Amino acid sequence: MQIIKYFSLLIILLWVIFYAVARWQDPEVLNIEDARDPASSGQLARLSAGNTFYELQGPENAPLVILVHGFAIGSHLWDGTFDRLVADGFRVLRFDLYGRGFSDRPDVIYDKDLFVNQLRALLQTLAITEPFHLVGISMGALVAAEFAANEPLKITTLTLLSPLSQRQDVALFQLPLLADPLAIVLMRTQLTKHIENMVYLPVAELDTIKTRFLDEIMVKDTRKSLLSTARHLLADNHLDTYQQLGQQNIPTLLIWGKQDIVTPYSESAKLLAILPGAEMLSLDNVGHAPHLEASEQVDDRLRQHLTQKATD
Question: Would the pTM count as exceeding 0.85?
Answer without folding.
Answer: yes
